[in-house]
Amino acid sequence: MKMTAQTSEWKKIALDVGIQNIISDDFAKKHAMIYQGQKNRPKAMAYFDQAALNTFKARGVEELIEHKKNGSKIVGTFCTFVPDEIIIAAGAIPIRLSAGTELSIADAEIILPREICPMIKSFAGLILAKSSPYFELVDFLVGETTCDGKKKVWELLQQYIPVHVMELPQKKVLTARNLWAREVFLLKEKMEIETGNKITAESLTRATQIVMAKRNALQRLANLRKSSLLPISGKDASLVYQVAFLDDIRRFTSKVEILCDELEKRIKESEGVVDSSAPRIMITGCPMVMPDWKLHHIIETSGAVVVCDDTCSGARCHIDPASASDWSADPSDVATQIKALADWYLNIPCPCFTPGYCEVLQATQMAKDHKVDGVIYYVLQFCHGFNIEYYKFEKHFNDLGIPIFKVQSDYSSEDTGQLQTRIAAFLEIIC
Ligand code: SF4
Ligand code: SF4
Fold it and tell me: Residue 331 has what pLDDT?
């Protein structure tokens, strides 16, 4: 293999460049097949295409290497509950490292059982095989006690990479709220020790404004997808959400605003990406991270269109951004701010909590707002929380008269043909 400046830089961070190149090529191949064939895409998607292609490869990683050289700490996270605000307030950079490639799963299965969800095996395999530059660059990971798979995997991964584990409660009662606020305080202390920077009310307010600007931009994008004339495909919108996990937050926010300006213009000029008679689908369930693009692609090549994503790789990342301004407005007291921040985070719907009703309520509201014709509920193989919770969703949406259908899958392409047939049959019921 020819040694480029980039590969020599990456060798310094102990990356297995050979495996990393195989994963990058797979990304590029899938991206070309799934994204480039779409007609009439918004011009502003060019930025997100490039950012996706750079995942594992270029600018994003080189930027992080520069930040590290300048003394910044990089923190890997895996769950919507981990507050980016605390990490940014300490002058560090959060990156979300959940993974969606099947190519690292065999490496994970050397130490993990086969019967756990592919997302966990995917990121664990990247760590074990040293095949992702991100894991070689992070100073430490922040894990959480959400599902059993993640709770236990941190214990194993501690041998390979430092992990700070936040204890997420399982209920949303008052004692649980106090416990979670304490955990957010502990993260603040951890960040202060790691960076040597004190988190003040002012730095936390600034960080909150940065994160809120991103949430507001994503909320704006979600609102534009309510239009009866859809200005962006579900695949493209999903790619934007996925890029959010890794991109520089300020640049990402400005690019989403530029995209939204273009989409608003398209709506005014009646320029849609699909026929307005195409069935409107909501996806809910497990998060989808790059390059897990299979489901959106199958739906949108079967004549329907995805108009909203009620997932942690979708709207669950920007629930109710306006309410965060209540606590970010008073920068006088960091302790009060952190308590309110922790409380705000506990509104995120997640099946790891019991009882879990707010997920169904949020999904219902979203389905109504986006005038959906049907709901596809996505379950990653061996994810018991989302799988069991489907019962509630099915009953609820059946009562509302909105057809719902569960898809259980993994990161391989083996079930593509079968899924195409099942989704086509579901769409026939809707039409
Ligand atoms: S579904 Fe739950 S555990 Fe998964 S990322 Fe979202 S909040 Fe975290
Ligand atoms: S998809 Fe389910 S099993 Fe996998 S990490 Fe998320 S909550 Fe855990």
Answer: 61
CB-based burial, 238-253: b 16+ in 10 Å, e otherwise: bbbbbbbbbbbbeebb
pLDDT given for residue 359 in this prediction = 84
Tokens of 6: 């980039």
Q: Is 324 in the pocket of ligand 1 (CB under 6 A)?
A: no
**Residues 11, 341: Cα–Cα separation, whole Å:** 39
d(CA 169, CA 86): 19
User: Which stretches of 238-319 are assigned E, i.e. beta strand?
Assistant: 280-285, 305-310
Cα 29 to ligand 1 centroid, rounded to whole Å: 28
What are the residues whose beta carbons fall under 8 Å from the beta carbon of 251, sequence distance 6 or more?
none
pLDDT beyond 50 at 244: yes
pLDDT greater than 80 at residue 15:
no
Bridge partners (DSSP) of residue 306 are: 281
What's the 325 CA to ligand 1 centre distance in angstroms?
Answer: 23
Q: Residue 277: which residues within 8 A CB-CB, separation 6 or more? A: none
Asked if residue 388 lies in contact with residue 417, where contact means CB atoms within 8 angstroms, the answer is: no
CB of 15 within 6 A of ligand 1: the answer is: no
Q: Which residues line ligand 2 (CB under 6 A)?
A: 117, 119-120, 146-147, 149-150, 286, 380, 383, 385-386
Which token pair is 4?
């480029």
Question: 80 C-alpha vs ligand 1 centroid, how far in Å?
Answer: 6
**DSSP for 187-198?**
HHHHHHHHH---
Ligand 2 atom at minimal distance to the Cα of residue 120: 5
Smallest CA-to-CA distance from 165 within 93, 89, 77 is with 77
The rounded distance, in Å, linking the Cα atoms of 217 and 250 is: 11
Tell me the CA–centroid distance for residue 112 and ligand 2, in Å: 15
- Check residue 251 and give its pLDDT: 96
Evaluate the omega torsion of the peptide bond into residue 291 and state whether it is cis, within 30 degrees of 0.
Answer: yes
Q: Is the pLDDT confidence value at 9 over 80?
A: no
